[in-house]
Amino acid sequence: MRKIALMITGIAALLLVLAGCGNTKEANKEDKKIVVAATPTPHGEVVKKAGEILKKDGYDVEVREVNDYKIPNKLLDKGDVDANMFQHVPYLKAEQKSHGYQIEEVGKVLTTPMGVYSKKHKSLKDLPDGAKIYISNNPAEEGRFLSFFVKEGLIKIKDGVKIEDAKLDDIVENKKHLEFDNQQGAEFLPKTYNNNEGDAVIMNSNYAIDNGLKPLKDSIAVEDESSPFANILAVQKGHKDDKKFQDLIKALQSDEVRDYINEEFDGAVIPAK
Q1: What is the widest separation between alpha-carbon atoms in the chain?
Q2: What are the respective helix, strand and coil percentages of the chain, to the nearest 5?
Q3: Which of 71, 239, 261, 267 has the most CB atoms at less than 10 Å from its CB?
């Protein structure tokens, strides 16, 4: 009877050990899974490339494609995804202020140079008096939109205001009385351009590329490498130093991914420095 009891005890202990091993394996497997919310082009493609690099280390990187800029931070904050890649720091700060999102930057990855597109004019200098410029309704990008016209000398903003922090209300001089229409989401601006509305439309490169445009060729003005609006990999606050996210940012900033960006997008996307 004692032998049977000892045998049962031993089997029970073995089952507990095996169950523990199974749980550990499952936990390790789960820790190797990374779901990233990203806009399809170029962010999603770049994340997929990084995922190929991480496969050899046992990682499974999944991209959840999202076209609406308002969704990725919501998904990340709720824990529906592990990370996202689509935004720059000024946008993240604005989202944190508006929604209280507990999200932080892991590292910078790439810049999608914003461009000014027009079917009517060949340069910013050609814009007529009272020209209508369509921009997105993203308040975190207002300084970015204005930077084109500040650089060209068409407008001036208040002294002491950094261009990345500038707002439409900071315009103090507008030589050509340019009108900025900010009533649409960024995803709708390609349609505005295709419909030949207004005098010019400012678009993010990912939307321009998705609609068959080549930013360096088709725009009448485009950002260069000095742009302060590099897109970042973001995660929930307190997790940026987690091994899997450090491994992911290392892959995203690797020479292999940088080469891929340069070759695949021909200057329309720039690896972050």
Answers
A1: 101
A2: 45, 25, 30
A3: 261
